[in-house]
Amino acid sequence: MEPTRNCPLFGGAFFAILPTGAIDVRDLRPVPDNQEVFCHPVTDQSLIIELLELQAHGQGGAAARYHFEDIGGVQGARAVHVLSVQPLWLENLSLRGCCQDAWFLSGKQQVAKDNEQVLAIFVS
């Protein structure tokens, strides 16, 4: 297992445990203030943590799904697939006094990087 480090997010408001090799994308290019973006130099995977605005038309897990699908649409994702949506226990969160509920969505999006084209390969 790769060694990890405790990494501050959004000026230290949150922390995440990341592999020591994770690169802060801010060191490479501009990143919006509402995002923290990290990439892995070997696997070419990215982790994007984004602060989102409350949407009155959706609540709970439906709001998490809405935001995930909306981000995929904005980025021109060719595929957006939600794997699971699960509630987080508020007593385990540092923001427990500030929010009514919290959700963890796991999913995949197929998005081209920069000017690359997204290629889909089908094997039959």
From TrEMBL:
Keyword check for Plastid: no
Classification via Gene3D superfamilies: Mog1/PsbP, alpha/beta/alpha sandwich (3.40.1000.10)
Molecular-function GO term, any one: guanyl-nucleotide exchange factor activity
InterPro entries listed in its UniProt record: Mog1, Mog1/PsbP_a/b/a-sand
Domain of life, source organism: Eukaryota
Pfam families in the cross-refs: Mog1 (PF04603)
GO BP annotations, alphabetical order: heart contraction; protein import into nucleus; regulation of membrane depolarization
Keywords attached to this entry: Protein transport, Transport
GO cellular component: nucleus
Family that this chain belongs to: Belongs to the MOG1 family.
Protein name: Ran guanine nucleotide release factor
Organism, as annotated: Mus spicilegus (Mound-building mouse)
